[in-house]
UniProtKB/TrEMBL annotation:
Protein family per UniProt: Belongs to the peroxiredoxin family. BCP/PrxQ subfamily.
A GO cellular-component term linked to this record: cytoplasm
Active-site residues annotated for this sequence: 47
InterPro entries recorded: AhpC/TSA, Peroxiredoxin_AhpC-typ, Peroxiredoxin_BCP/PrxQ, Thioredoxin-like_sf, Thioredoxin_domain
GO terms (BP aspect): cell redox homeostasis; cellular response to oxidative stress
Keywords associated with the record: Antioxidant, Disulfide bond, Oxidoreductase, Peroxidase, Redox-active center
GO molecular function: thioredoxin peroxidase activity
Entry-linked PANTHER family: AHPC_TSA FAMILY PROTEIN (PTHR42801:SF4), THIOREDOXIN-DEPENDENT PEROXIDE REDUCTASE (PTHR42801)
Protein name: thioredoxin-dependent peroxiredoxin
Length: 160
């Protein structure tokens, strides 16, 4: 599968979180909007800042009824240590080997470093927004919140 675009159906996947629980994307579809933020590495400067910015905004994501997941190629054990150290309140999914990263078409930086890319997926499983920036860590959070607010506004308009 090539690079995902807005309007595409989000590919299904199954990954373990930092507690060893299996998370299936198909279990969320039809229930919640989902934010998937792919990041290069646990405990690195930029990834720590990005994860903590998501953590600090979780009340807003909860108000929008959204589920947030961080995804990197780190192991379940590394994710557990990182989540505990930073008091993260959302699941970190272990994509060892980068299979889901490839499935979503997350770009690499300079062909070697895993990219930093956020996907906002509507409750219908359709990709509604994609934001990719290796250095603007906080923008991943603000972009995701703006996209979720649009999803909610469109759903409210459709109900009227």
């Amino acid at each position: 599968m090539g690079k995902l675009k807005v309007g595409d159906e989000a590919p299904d996947f199954e990954l373990k979180d930092q507690d060893g629980n299996t998370i299936k994307f198909s279990d969320l579809k039809g229930k919640y909007p989902v934010v998937l933020f792919f990041y290069p590495k646990d405990k690195s400067y930029g990834c720590t800042r990005e994860a903590c910015t998501f953590r600090d905004s979780m009340s807003e994501f909860n108000e929008l009824n959204a589920k947030v997941f961080g995804i990197s190629s780190d192991s379940v054990e590394t994710h557990k240590s990182f989540a505990e150290q930073q008091k993260l309140t959302f699941p970190l999914l272990s994509d060892v080997g980068g299979k889901v990263r490839k499935l979503y078409g997350v770009p690499s930086t300079m062909f070697i470093m895993p990219g930093r890319c956020t996907y906002v997926i509507g409750p219908d499983g359709i990709v509604r927004h994609i934001y990719s920036s290796q250095v603007n860590f906080a923008n991943h959070v603000s972009e995701a919140k703006t996209a979720l607010e649009k999803i909610r506004a469109n759903a409210e308009t459709a109900e009227e």
